[in-house]
Amino acid sequence: MRKTNKLIYLSLLLLLSFVGCRKDDYGEKSRYAFLSESDFLREWFKLECRIVKETDGFFPPQAARAFGYTGITVYEAVSGGMQNATSLAGQLNGLTSSMLPKREDNVGYDWAIACNAATAEIMRSLFEKKISSANLNNINSLEKTQHEELRVGVTADIVSRSVQYGRDVAKAMFDYSKTDGGHDSYLDPFQLPYTVPKGDDKWVSTSAKFATPLSPNWKACRYMLKSNEIFAVPPKPITFSKDTTSEFYRQATQVYRQVKGNTSEQVEIAKYWADDPFNTCTPSGHTFNILTQILEETNASLEKAAVAYGLMGIAENDAFIACWKTKYDYSLIRPVSFIQKYIDPSFTTVIGTPPFPAYTSGHATEGAVGARIMSRLFTNGDGNYAFTDRTQIQFGFSVRNYRNFEELANECANSRLYGGIHYDMDNQKGLQMGRGIGDNVLVSIQWPKLSNQK
After folding, report:
1. Which of 351, 422, 336, 355 minimizes the C-alpha distance to 214?
2. What is the value of pTM for the model shown?
């Protein structure tokens, strides 16, 4: 299929030369990015899911960061081949044009080849100190195999130039990542030492395995889009109270009754969306997998896939920073701890409670972000897009069907209530945060208008 599209591309170039179209009328690079397929790129994100799952230290914040930097590297490596595309330099927080490599004028590039090289390089860098030899070999092998396929019919000078450009973009983006506060965080994901706040309303450990909460300083990481900071200040959680007539007690009782009365489907939903690290590729990995699946089903071009991964990368990265700030601003007690102490000592949750505070829900925040991004990519803005999520088959689940992306986000959020690990307020405020971040990423960066975008 790739060879077929390259032949179509070359034929179009020849036809346009006959009718007197100059290179600048539409742009040779733009035509190629639009016509090139994205199947090779989708394979990279499938591999990244596997590497996140199998690499020590990649809990949800660290995973979202890795997917995020891979996404913006892909976009930047391909943006030169898109009509009316603008570099992320000067748009992302702290990224300047002087930090990025310059393209040569009046010479050709193959954007798929550049993208392949860039993606391989950034993934080697992001996981380098913990990656297994098997997964490093998987990166190197995939890069080589896809390079050999992509280079067919391309002149040697363009191949060499494109590979070098892609690697230079990846190196620049990795250097940019080193200053964000999360560099090498997978080596010390719990960011010790940390003193756990004390108080009746404060988080307490729910597992002997985790005495302290995960990544308490993640909130200090740099947002890719600085304006996303404003979404990290949702309304305060409902005031803590042990009074049985209080609203906080009602929130806890709702969790208790929900777990006790769960239907079989609600139990399945709780487990389906658990996305536990090291058993899956985390919540952000699940969302990236859904994006990859839909890009495949729609036979998306390299242009569209690069924009999609760039959008999702920024949104997911910033969603976890904002959510973690809220978590550690309040360090709110988890429902299981409150219920066992004040309602029913024998209470157990459907799924494991993760080792960090309750308010707000990371699943709700990142799920809403994903829904906003995919609504823009695959609908006319109404979000209506019926699809089947097949991405969890690899982890032993059946498929699930959705009428639209908002339904997907709401189910993701509600799964945490069904699982007994979040109050409803955690979910609802998390959804609001995620929607705000997703919408902001869509409008605050000059994304190119895609050829099939309304």
Report:
1. 355
2. 0.93
Q: Contact, 111 vs 32, CB < 8 A?
A: yes
Q: Which CATH number fits domain 193-444: 1.10.606.20, 3.40.50.1390, 3.90.180.10, 3.30.70.1170?
A: 1.10.606.20
Going by C-alpha positions, the residue among 222, 8, 25, 50 that lies closest to residue 134 is 50
Residue that is written with structure tokens 């030899």 in the block: 133
User: Side-chain half-sphere of 433: how many Cα atoms within 13 Å?
Assistant: 36
Predicted confidence (pLDDT) at residue 220 exceeds the cutoff of 70: yes
pLDDT for residue 450 = 73
pLDDT at position 8 over 50: no
Predicted pLDDT of residue 1: 45
Q: What letter represents residue 135's amino acid?
A: N
- Residues of the chain with pLDDT > 70, as a percent, come to 91
Residues 33-60 have a mean pLDDT of 93
Beta strands in 188-332 (DSSP E): none
* CATH no. of 2-177: 1.10.606.20
281, 59, 129, 188 alpha-carbon torsion, rounded to 10°: -170
Strand partners of residue 280: 277
**Which residues make up the CATH 1.10.606.20 domain(s) of the chain?**
2-177, 193-444
Q: Which two tokens stand for residue 175?
A: 């250097």
Among left, alpha and beta (phi > 0; psi -120 to 50; other), residue 153 is left
The alpha carbon dihedral of 259, 419, 330, 337 has a sign of positive
How many other CB atoms are found less than 10 A from the CB of residue 291? 27
Average pLDDT, the chain: 92
pLDDT at 3: 47
The answer to whether the CB of 425 falls within 8 A of the CB of 235 is: no
pLDDT at 264 over 60: yes
Residue recorded with tokens 């790129």 = 41
Mean pLDDT within 250-278: 98
Q: Measured between alpha carbons, how far is residue 120 from residues 70, 219, 420 in Å? A: 9, 29, 39
Kindly state the average pLDDT of the residues 202-230: 97
The runs of H, that is alpha helices, within 89-228 are 111-126, 133-150, 156-177
